[in-house]
């Protein structure tokens, strides 16, 4: 009996208490009628209708083309130009540990992902593309897509809040046949994780979630920059949550998204409130408020109108702004602070706090009032530490050889898994041994 060792990306062995695999819809905001798939690492089996094997062991130098059928009720599939027909759905299933797919939709930027791929028709001229992937693999991709930085604690914090959100919202798209989308409606998931430093932070967060005083998972919204003060949850959404309280956030000052300005013709500004909200802008007190509105501290409304509505209608970066009139042009000037809804964690505030040496758990408690970090006792500390050690070695090796070109099999993920596979099989790893495909497979 041949069994393929499947050591899921980083933590599948210790994350099964969370979710073994999740289904993530890709290219959610794009209409895609054709998808071209190539293979960056490992081998994939091609199936029709999820169970009928069409072609085994697809890899280098092969390309799969998947298109919607003319009627829009199926997908046509071809390998290197050879057509296999039309099916309800097709799937590409990874056959070994570190397998990487390269996705090239027509007219959309290329992405790469790990795990499996399932493609079906989603109306005429549109494909539904779903990545079935290990939970922690998904999280690492989210962290890479959602935050910038270089220090591992930045990524550890983002991984912890993203894990908490995902577990709390695991069935958000259940009625659609998947768990999450890849857009900000859920969490951005724009590529597989390719950076060892991001994977290091994600691994360090293993088993960590954020809970309230009763031990329940909290909602963990985050945004780019608070502008100096976060917002209460009820000022943006409906519910007042005790752990989403407005807090001073000077750490968000002097960052990329700290401040912004928007100039609006005065007639457009006043006309908006007159036509959309039926205010009498000729009234002196109303007109004065609209033209001199200020927020030394965050407010939720102006003349009873939610600032969230104004932000949406004028496409503003945040609701944290003050209003003045340019004495020369007569235009309305909005001087704003921050970027995003302002509730929960400020990512740029987090980056600044980490740079100042503030501990990751203190940062989380700063943004989520009264919260605490819960550590899953089922997560093996020794197992996690082994991974952290291996990733650290890879990071140090890359630093020692900057700019070194690597083949696909020298990809840091593949290297890490080849080491871990041998350790799990209790074999001695010989770094001089030539890597061959059989290294990934074991006879039992």
List the helices and strands and how they pair.
Blueprint: E1 2-4, E2 21-26, E3 34-41, E4 44-48, E5 52-58, E6 64-68, E7 75-79, E8 82-87, E9 89-94, E10 100-105, E11 111-114, E12 116-121, E13 127-134, H1 135-146, H2 152-168, E14 180-181, H3 196-204, E15 208-211, E16 222-223, E17 259-264, H4 266-275, H5 284-292, E18 301-302, E19 305-306, H6 307-314, E20 321-325, E21 332-337, E22 345-346, H7 347-355, H8 360-367, E23 372-375, H9 381-400, H10 412-424, E24 441-443
Parallel strand pairs: 2-14, 16-22
Antiparallel strand pairs: 1-24, 2-13, 3-6, 3-10, 4-5, 4-9, 6-7, 7-8, 9-12, 10-11, 12-13, 15-23, 17-21, 18-19, 20-21
Helix pairs in contact: 1-2, 2-3, 2-7, 2-8, 3-9, 9-10
Mean pLDDT: 88
Oligomeric nature of the chains: single chain
Which consecutive residue ranges, at least 5 long each, have pLDDT under 50? Answer: 1-17, 433-444
Provide the CATH top-level class of the domain at 2-15 and 26-135: Mainly Beta
What is the radius of gyration? 25 Å
Strand order of the largest sheet: 5-4-9-12-13-2-14
Percentage beta strand: 25-35%
Count of strand segments? 24
Biggest sheet record: 7 strands, mixed
CATH topology of the domain at 2-15 and 26-135: Tumour Suppressor Smad4
Distance between the termini: 6 Å
Which architecture of the domain at 2-15 and 26-135 per CATH? Sandwich
Structural class: alpha+beta
Q: Provide a count of the helices.
A: 10
Helical percentage: 25-40%
Shape designation: globular
Give an account of the 3D structure.
- There is one protein chain.
- By secondary structure, the protein is α+β, with helices and mostly antiparallel strands.
- Among the domains are: 2-15 and 26-135, Sandwich (Tumour Suppressor Smad4); 259-337, no CATH class.
- The chain is 26% helix and 25% strand.
- The chain has helices at residues 135-146, 152-168, 196-204, 266-275, 284-292, 307-314, 347-355, 360-367, 381-400, 412-424, and strands at residues 2-4, 21-26, 34-41, 44-48, 52-58, 64-68, 75-79, 82-87, 89-94, 100-105, 111-114, 116-121, 127-134, 180-181, 208-211, 222-223, 259-264, 301-302, 305-306, 321-325, 332-337, 345-346, 372-375, 441-443.
- The strands form seven sheets. It has a seven-stranded mixed beta sheet.
- A hairpin with a 6-residue loop joins strand 20 (321-325) and strand 21.
- The longest helix is centred in the last third of the chain and has 20 residues, at 381-400.
- It is globular, with a radius of gyration of 25 Å.
- 42% of the residues are buried.
- The model is unreliable at 1-17 and 433-444 (pLDDT under 50).
């Amino acid at each position: 009996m041949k069994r393929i060792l499947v050591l899921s990306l980083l933590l599948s062995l210790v994350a099964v208490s969370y979710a073994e695999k999740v289904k993530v819809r890709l290219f959610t905001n794009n209409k895609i009628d054709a998808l071209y798939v190539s293979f960056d690492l490992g081998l994939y089996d091609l199936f029709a209708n999820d169970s009928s094997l069409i072609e085994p062991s697809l890899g280098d130098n092969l390309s799969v083309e998947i298109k919607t059928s003319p009627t829009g009720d199926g997908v046509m599939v071809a390998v290197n130009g050879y057509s296999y027909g039309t099916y309800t759905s097709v799937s590409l299933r990874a056959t070994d540990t570190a397998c990487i797919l390269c996705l090239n939709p027509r007219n959309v930027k290329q992405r790469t992902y790990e795990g499996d791929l399932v493609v079906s028709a989603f109306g005429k001229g549109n494909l539904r593309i779903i990545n079935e992937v290990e939970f922690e693999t998904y999280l690492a991709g989210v962290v890479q897509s959602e935050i910038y930085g270089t220090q591992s604690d930045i990524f550890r914090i983002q991984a912890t809040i993203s894990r908490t959100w995902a577990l709390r919202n695991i069935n958000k798209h259940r009625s659609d046949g998947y768990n999450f989308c890849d857009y900000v409606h859920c969490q951005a998931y724009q590529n597989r994780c390719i950076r060892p430093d991001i994977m290091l932070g994600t691994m360090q967060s293993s088993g960590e979630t954020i809970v309230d005083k009763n031990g329940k998972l909290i909602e963990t919204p985050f945004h780019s920059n608070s502008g100096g003060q976060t917002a209460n949850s009820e000022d943006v959404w409906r519910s007042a949550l005790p752990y989403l309280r407005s807090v001073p956030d000077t750490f968000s000052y002097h960052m990329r998204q700290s401040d912004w300005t928007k100039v609006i013709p005065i007639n457009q500004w006043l006309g908006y409130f007159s036509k959309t909200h039926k205010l009498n802008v000729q009234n002196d007190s109303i007109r004065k408020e609209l033209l001199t509105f200020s927020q030394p501290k965050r407010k939720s409304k102006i003349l009873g109108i939610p600032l969230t509505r104004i932000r949406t209608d004028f496409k503003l970066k945040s609701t944290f702004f003050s209003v003045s009139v340019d004495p020369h042009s007569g235009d309305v000037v909005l001087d704003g602070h921050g970027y995003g809804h302002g509730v929960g964690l400020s990512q740029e505030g987090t980056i600044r706090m980490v740079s100042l040496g503030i501990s990751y758990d203190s940062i989380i408690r700063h943004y989520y009032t009264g919260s605490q970090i819960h550590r899953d006792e089922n997560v093996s500390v020794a197992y996690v530490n082994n991974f952290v050690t291996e990733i650290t070695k890879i990071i140090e090796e890359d630093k020692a050889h900057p700019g070194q070109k690597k083949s696909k099999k020298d990809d840091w993920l593949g290297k890490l898994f080849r080491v871990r596979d041998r350790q799990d099989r209790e074999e001695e790893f010989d770094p001089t041994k030539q890597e061959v495909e059989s290294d990934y497979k074991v006879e039992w």
